[in-house]
Amino acid sequence: MKQQLDTFNIWYSSLPTRDRNLLIATVTLIVITLFYLLVWEPIHQGRDQQQQKFKSQQDIYSWMQSASRELQTLKRSGTRKVSSKQPISLIIENSAKISGLKQYINKIESSGKNGARVKIDSASFDQLLVWLNTLEQQHGVTVTTASIERNDKTGTISARLSFEKIE
To answer: Would you put residue 100 in left (φ > 0), alpha (ψ -120 to 50) or beta?
Structure first.
């Protein structure tokens, strides 16, 4: 190593002053460029990426907080289950009429104090799901058993459902 360093010093000393200055400037420029490309720029890019991730996480956090507040407000002011003294078959019939499913109901029969069975033919599946959700959310009536069959007409079903009213 010492021999190579001595050879370099001899070679460097033999250069004219102008070439030595040019060599120093070139080496300095290369060292600065390498430092910038290998150290400085990656550090700043990483910092910028982390700042963007942090801002994104802050945005998500504030959205989640506002959604949580909105959820709490909706829970407080939302639809409450009606504690009705009406028989379950009457609740089912009235809600089916409101939801437009009454015409598709073939039979409603009571089963016990808080139960009912319903047979539906050729009703819209989407409409049925909305009706079942309404029964549960507004009246406390849940489906205990369901047998649903697809009809030939797209989007329609036939169903046999058993309900129970939760008091």
So the answer is: left
